[in-house]
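Protein entry
_____________
===
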Amino acid sequence: MQEGDGNGWVKLADGSRRWGLYGAAGLLLYATDMAGSGHVLLQHRAGWTHMGDTWGIPGGARNRDETPLEAAVREFREEVSGDLEDYTVLGSHEQDLTVWRYDTFLLRVPALTPFRPGNSESEEIRWVGVDEAEALPLLPAFRTVWPHLLADLRSATVGGDLL
């Protein structure tokens, strides 16, 4: 984890905490396999992290001078090792919690590029079938937005079907 001016906790009205003084952002990568089935790239969060031993997407705190997309790409490159060069932004989803927000960017990559953990925040980085993701122990906030992300992915792919 790199030090940035966005690192720190924000307390929400319900008493829960979120990481990122200026909000946070992450990337949800999407690709199809040779048979045409859709997959998303998920991160198994290390047990020592906040809400560890759950699955979500690589992401983290925004710094003051970053756009949400810049923060999401920076965080991905900190947490994941592999080639993230050839991608298309399909869309984004903003979870606005009044005093804090999380921006998820939906990216399509041309293939199931191999990725691996880039630092100690990740136990594992894995391509998961779109229809299998919900069966994993998802980070609670990610589980909440998963139906919206899935709908956004469907609307951004050919004919609305996640292959």
